[in-house]
């Protein structure tokens, strides 16, 4: 993943400023969902999602950084979770998931880096490929305000920009809301 703005993620976590519970409630995760956490970082959202989807669901925690996935795998083992799979993969490449298999995909504090790095087309194509028709893609980003938290202002993306990206890839934007002090979420339903 190219990070032109000098703000490299390296699997960082946002757990100290935005709870997994807030994210998952806003995303409307359900029992039985097949859930993709794309760019999962340390997996704090993925771990909580495993409880939300239950034994009939499945969580796929994907990140390019091996150290991040090691943290997720250690947490899976420690908690003896059976419905979560941690995968080292660059989400600009083809995802190692079946086509049309995911009910809900989440990308939290990651999309701005792909926009800035010119990789948004590859990432969005991969998300569309794995989502079921009618599947939901929830994007969480830092609000486009000056703040000491998160990426530099010049690489932040607005809810309108996220909505336009989703529309370009055949999503119908169904919700846009502020969540937490620093973030917003835009949700789209895939129309394919």
Automatic annotation (TrEMBL):
* Example GO biological process: methylation
The UniProt keywords, alphabetically, are: Methyltransferase, Transferase
User: Which InterPro entries is this protein grouped with?
Assistant: Methyltranfer_dom (IPR025714), SAM-dependent_MTases_sf (IPR029063)
User: Is Kinase among the key words of this record?
Assistant: no
Q: Which GO molecular function, any one, fits this protein according to its record?
A: methyltransferase activity
Q: Does the keyword Cytoplasm apply?
A: no
Q: What is this protein called?
A: Class I SAM-dependent methyltransferase
